[in-house]
From TrEMBL:
Residues 890-1016 form the Disease resistance protein At4g27190-like leucine-rich repeats domain. Pfam families: LRR_R13L1-DRL21, LRR_RPS2, NB-ARC, Rx_N, WHD_DRP. InterPro entries: Apaf_helical, At4g27190-like_LRR, LRR_dom_sf, LRR_R13L1-DRL21, NB-ARC, P-loop_NTPase, Rx_N, WH-like_DNA-bd_sf. GO terms for molecular function: ADP binding; ATP binding. This is Disease resistance protein RGA3. It comes from Linum tenue. Residues 703-829 form the R13L1/DRL21-like LRR repeat region domain.
């Protein structure tokens, strides 16, 4: 890292030495001498860095040099900062007290005398170090031009293509055979260890086996856990629970976690992979405890794969009679295939001489894939044979055991990195092993440390940093890249051996701690430059930075990582004061989730700061002193939901490139002059505000401030567009020039008085650049969309239209279509009729659409045709004709659709499902049908004319996993096709009073794991006990819930038997005796329905039953509202939902449906991911949690409520309880006395809190 610091010093010295007048003029000669000395030393640093691994004297000399270079870098930073602040003071019309104090003679930091003394001391030390270097005969060597050219060449590459899995076919076959073999009677679970040294590909082999199709079909559950160096029982069990449930699990007591895990696993046959197990601590005792637990699960035939480098671990874990599978190196032929495809991928030609040297290098890698990949990656950028020979000769010098030789080879690859990349790589040792590294964060903190050497303007530094990352990725210093929807690499990992190499080079400079570790024995605090705290192992509500940090006065990085969603716990003000006062050389500081109610004013002491993360905190304002941090490049304030305004002088932070304001929901506006920050790459939120909205007399920025912010990239959300005066003001924002912007959200506030003409003009003027990938419109009041919607958005991938109350058509004519659109979500557009205003031209097809969600668009009847590749369809409160059109757009049954998720909710006038629906759903896995009270059957039986479709009907849904039906009172039996859904796992039936019994064929569904029934009076009575008539049909199901009661768990009956009522038994016998007669009548009715024309008005079909007559007139608005009231779920239905232990998607759907049901009684504003109701609670959904914020708290902003607000992050189950009581409060207001009585019986007086209920 010394080379990088030297480069940074020389870069800072250039403008300082060129100063012709002013404060720095008196130091000019000293700067020139310092520059000469540093340049002389830099010339030998590359050679010294390579020799330091073998020569202790060179290593000591290099360590001493680094400390002095760091001091010099800090001093030059002080000079630059002083000059900037003095210039600001002279240019400004007022003087901030703190800035004035900064320049008084009492401040020793900027005192000219003290600076002169520090500069002289540094020069003296450097002269001594420069003299000492001569005795080492270090070679003068500057940056390799070929290496620099390699980075430049790689900047032209759009994406990284990983190389295939080479060899290991025999290993794979052997282990898969062991997995698929039957287990003996005595041993229920077998453990198969894979043993081998680091880098051999144990993890890659396990992944290949884990994803094999034959293995996947053999096991009901598959779980992958990376153990690494932390064999903690509670952590492992929690990770297993998270892997199964796909949601975050709280850090509970181990016994509670085991109990939850046992419920989730049931008796399912599972495959568990424990990757990278070590022998730290009492691993034997912990393993024995876990094995005892897994045997209690009684999942016969389950298997566990363990990968480890240690023979002792493998032998102890292995099942008796099973030998660990010892992984060997690749054969020479396999090694050469891997080496050749990497080393000769670039400009290097596979000439005879290169092949000869390459094979020698490859043989010394001993068949270790990681070493082959990394060394071949290093050679791929060297087109001179001399460089290949040099690497071969150095490789031959390594001795010791195999692993030391491999580490030596990896270190050799590091030595051959371009100097710009070396510091970037070593810095990554701050992250724990197997950590998902956020690439954006990584590049930002590289910027903060000055590792990025950009020859362009400083605004391009982030792009250069991204290319640094891509270069390291292409050389296999990183692995397992993961991309976002736009193709940007978002996450990556480091291999354990590469992490070891980085740690070995970092020495005492970098320390990575667990959250609760102390700093004792962690080296000399005087040399500690970078520290991180890992919060994964034991998230805690309270955390305090180690006291030893007070003596680490040269610290440059303070970085909590793996922080839990609710934060790292409160940091006391004095703890923050200690960090701010003692660690004044910090470049990177994160206090994410520290629950700060205010930021200490002493933060102005951190004048070197480049990266500051204050996200997930509670402050309402930022101190003005933060604007003194003139070197700040990154300021992150995400999820600061109480933050109301930014300091007015933040516009003077001219180096700022990232201002992240995601979910700052209380922000009233941005300060005037924000448009002067032309280096901004990220401004995630721009709030248009009226002058009166900003306090203390400050003037808020208008939308025209966006005009010159042409470097903006990623996402931009513009709120309160109703406050834009006119089209001219909107046009001044110049969004069409922002070519790097990927996602744009345009929001008008609701409720409001709509001026349609002004909205149309504003939206017309806000035309984005053609490169835009995602567009969200919310609250727009115009009748149509501007022409640029059809002509400009040819690269659009995601489109969301929400709350467009007056919109009738999306396109006025047949313009160009959206060829790349994958996600289309349309919500709450009550007047929307069709995609296009004209019907004369054939509607085209969405060629790339994979996710379609239409919600609360009751008049929408015509959309572009859907492709067969669509994955998800969600139709909620739309006209039946839209469902018919959706089915009509299917391809022929010979090429079925790939839909996996289908939701049908509140379809107006729906009495039977469209005939062509089922034969096209061969890939369907999740089916929801909700709130269609007129629906009489879920698929009519085939008449004689449709016999040829029978096989298609019966086989269509063979992949169905989950089937949910809610509030379908007209359904009298489950559809016959369901018996052929052999993979069905969950069957959930709610508020289907017409369903009186389960079919006789239900026991055929052997994969059925969960049955949930609620609000079905007759059916519940036949299932509530083992003596009930339908119990034999469900006895095989592992988990059964009836009306909120857990009747069966893990196949064990739980309910206490109650004496049977003779009258009830007689009623059941009578209903059972009439079952066949009812089925015959129903079949006759269904065939009559099937023969009717589909477009006949529902009001004419009044001869089926008297109940239907009351609700079938869809044309009457008053009766339509009554129909909606009839969709209100019953209390028993809600209890059934609560017993589902639903995942986040199920919860979101249920919650949204609840609010929609009451839309005629409650004012609801449904904007993007936010739902606001009149129960004085705001909700928003994020990943695996639903968050609740008291509306009154948001309005009043009382400080005393802040602590209470911290606890308003509710789990899925707690949110379900909240929703349940919203429904109960509404149920009390019904006019129907029977419903009132039912609600009073099941709901105790008063509404307890969700947390109390869930406990």
């Amino acid at each position: 890292m010394a080379f990088a610091v030297a480069e940074a010093i020389l870069k800072k010295l250039a403008p300082l030495a060129a100063e012709q007048a002013g404060l720095l003029w008196s130091f000019k000669s000293d700067f020139l001498k310092l520059k000469s000395t540093v340049s002389s030393i830099r010339a030998v640093l590359l050679d010294a860095d390579e020799q330091s691994g073998m020569n202790h004297q060179v290593r000591d000399w290099l360590d001493e040099l680094k400390q002095v270079l760091y001091d010099a870098d800090d001093l030059l930073d002080d000079f630059s900062t002083e000059a900037l602040l003095k210039q600001r003071r002279n240019d400004g019309n007022r003087c901030v007290n703190e800035v004035c104090l900064f320049f008084t003679r009492s401040n020793q930091l900027v005192s000219g005398l003290v600076m002169a003394h520090r500069l002289k001391a540094i020069r003296t030390k450097l002269d001594e170090i420069d003299e000492n270097r001569r005795k080492f005969n270090l070679e003068t060597r500057l940056q390799d031009p070929a290496a620099a050219a390699a980075i430049k060449h790689e900047r032209q590459t759009d994406s990284f293509v990983p190389y295939g899995f080479v060899g290991r076919e025999e290993d794979k076959k052997k282990i898969i055979a062991m997995l698929l073999s039957s287990t003996n009677d005595e041993q229920k679970i077998e453990v198969i260890p894979i043993l081998g040294m680091g880098g051999l590909g144990k993890t890659a082999l396990a992944q290949c086996i884990y994803n094999d199709k034959n293995v996947s079909t053999c096991f009901q559950l598959k779980i992958w856990i990376c153990v690494s160096d932390n064999f903690d029982q509670a952590l492992l069990v929690r990770k297993m629970l998270e892997s199964i449930t796909k949601r975050k699990v709280e850090d509970l007591d181990l016994d509670i976690l085991k109990g939850e895990l046992k419920k989730e696993m049931g008796n399912k046959r599972f495959l568990l992979v424990l990757d990278d197990v070590w022998d730290h601590g009492d691993y034997k005792g912990k393993w024995d405890s876990l094995m005892s637990f897994w045997l209690q699960v009684e999942a016969a035939g389950s298997k566990i794969i363990v990968t480890t480098r240690l023979g002792g671990v493998a032998n102890y874990f292995a099942t008796k009679g099973i030998k660990p599978h010892k992984l060997k190196g690749l054969s020479e032929q396999e090694s050469w295939v891997l080496f050749e495809q990497i080393a000769f991928k670039g400009e290097v030609e596979s000439g005879e001489r290169f092949v000869y040297i390459g094979k020698e290098v490859m043989r010394r890698c001993m068949g270790v894939p990681l070493a082959i990949r990394v060394i071949a990656g290093a050679l791929s950028s060297k087109s001179n044979i001399v460089d290949w020979v040099a690497i071969r000769d150095k490789q031959a010098m390594f001795d010791g055991d195999d692993e030391r030789k491999i580490l030596g080879t990896l270190k050799l690859s590091y030595d051959n990195l371009p100097s710009e990349l070396k510091s970037c790589f070593v810095y990554c040792s701050l992250f724990p092993k197997d950590f998902d590294i956020d690439v954006k964060l990584l590049v930002q903190i590289w910027m903060g440390q000055g590792f990025i050497n950009s020859s362009q303007s400083s605004s391009a530094s982030f792009e250069v940093g991204v290319e640094y990352f891509k270069s390291l990725l292409s050389r296999f210093f990183f692995q397992e890249p993961k991309s976002d929807a736009w193709g940007n690499v978002k996450w990556c990992k480091m291999h354990d051996l590469m992490h070891d190499v980085a740690l070995g080079i970092a020495s005492e400079e970098i320390v990575a701690l667990k959250a609760l570790d102390s700093m004792e024995g962690r080296g000399n605090s005087d040399r500690l430059r970078h520290i991180s705290f890992d919060f994964e192992e034991k998230p805690t509500e309270t955390w305090k930075a180690p006291d030893a940090l007070a003596s680490a006065t040269v610290l440059r990085t303070f970085l909590p990582i793996n922080t839990p969603y609710y934060g790292i716990g409160g940091i006391e003000e004095q703890n923050c004061e200690m960090i701010f006062s003692n660690n004044t050389r910090l470049r990177v500081l994160s206090l994410h989730g520290a629950k700060l109610e205010s930021v200490a004013r002493s933060i102005h002491k951190l004048t070197h700061l480049r990266y500051l993360n204050l996200g997930h905190n509670l402050m309402e304002v930022l101190p003005g002193e933060i604007t003194i941090l003139v070197n700040l490049q990154v300021l992150i304030l995400n999820y600061c939901e109480n933050l109301e305004q930014l300091p007015r002088d933040i516009v003077k932070l001219t180096d700022l490139e990232f201002l992240s304001l995601v979910r700052c929901s209380s922000l009233k506006g941005l300060p005037l002059g924000i448009g002067r920050l032309t280096r901004l790459r990220e401004l995630s939120l721009f709030v248009v505000s009226a002058p009166s909205d900003y306090s203390h007399g400050a003037v808020a920025a208008r939308i025209s401030e966006l005009e010159h912010l042409d470097n903006l990239s990623e996402e931009l959300e513009i709120r309160n567009l109703e406050l834009v005066k006119d089209e001219a003001e909107a046009k001044a924002a110049s969004l069409f020039r922002k070519q790097h912007l990927q996602a744009l959200t345009l929001k008008w506030s609701l409720p409001r008085r709509v001026f349609a003409g002004r909205d149309v003009g504003v939206l017309k003027a806000l035309e984005p650049h053609k490169n835009l990938k995602e567009l969200k419109l919310n609250g727009y009041g115009g009748h149509s969309l501007p022409s640029w919607f059809s002509t400009t958005l040819q690269n659009l991938i995601r489109l969301t239209l929400s709350n467009l109350g007056r919109l009738k058509y999306i396109e006025d004519d047949a313009g160009q279509f959206l060829p790349r659109l994958k996600y289309l979500w349309i919500r709450n557009c009550p007047r929307l009729v069709s995609w296009r205003s004209t019907t004369e031209i054939e509607m085209p097809q969405f060629p790339s659409l994979s996710d379609l969600r239409i919600e609360k668009c009751p008049k929408l009847v015509r959309l572009p045709h859907i492709s067969a590749d669509i994955d998800t369809v969600y139709l909620n409160y739309v006209d039946r004709k839209l469902l018919d059109q959706f089915v009509a757009s299917f391809p022929p049954p010979s090429s079925p659709s790939r839909i996996k998720n289908l939701t049908i909710c509140e379809i107006r006038g729906l009495r039977i499902l469209p005939q062509g629906l089922l034969p096209h759903l061969a890939s369907l896995e999740y089916l929801w049908i909700w709130g269609c009270p007129n629906l009489m059957n879920l698929y009519p039986p085939a008449t004689s004319q449709q016999q040829h479709l029978t096989s298609l009907q019966f086989s269509a849904l063979s992949n169905l996993r989950r089937f949910y039906i809610f509030h379908l009172p007209g359904i009298k039996r489950l559809p016959e096709w369901l018996q052929h859904s052999s993979n069905l796992q969950v069957l959930s039936i709610h508020d289907c009073d017409g369903l009186k019994c389960l079919p006789k064929w239900l026991p055929k569904l052997t994969a059925l794991d969960t049955l949930i029934v609620s609000g079905c009076h007759f059916l519940s009575a036949r299932l509530k006990s083992r003596t009930a008539e339908d119990w034999p049909k469900v006895a095989h199901i592992r988990k059964i819930d009836i009306d909120g009661t857990k009747v069966q768990r893990d196949g064990n009956y739980m309910r206490v038997e109650e004496p049977a009522d003779e009258n009830q038994l007689q009623e059941q016998e009578a209903s059972g005796g009439e079952e066949e007669e009812e089925e015959e009548e129903e079949q006759q009715q269904q065939q009559e329905l099937f023969s009717e024309e589909e477009d006949v008005d529902d009001a004419d079909n009044n001869d089926d039953c008297e109940e239907e007559e009351e609700d079938d007139d869809d044309d009457n608005d008053d009766e339509e509202e009554e129909g909606l009231s009839s969709c209100i779920p019953s209390p028993s239905f809600c209890l059934g939902i609560l017993s589902m232990e639903a995942d986040i998607q199920a919860t979101v759907l249920f919650f949204r449906m609840t609010l929609m049901t009451y839309k005629h009684k409650t004012h609801v504003v449904d904007s993007d991911r936010r739902i606001i109701s009149d129960v004085d609670v705001d909700f928003y959904i994020n990943d695996d949690e639903i968050h609740v914020v008291d509306s009154n708290h948001l309005k009043e902003k009382k400080k005393k409520n802040n602590n209470n607000n911290n606890n308003n992050n509710y789990s899925v189950r707690e949110m379900m309880m909240m929703t349940f009581f919203i429904i109960m409060m509404r149920a009390r207001k019904r006019e129907d006395k029977n419903d009132e009585d039912e609600a009073k019986e099941e709901l105790p007086f008063g509404t307890p809190s969700p947390r109390m209920l869930s406990s």
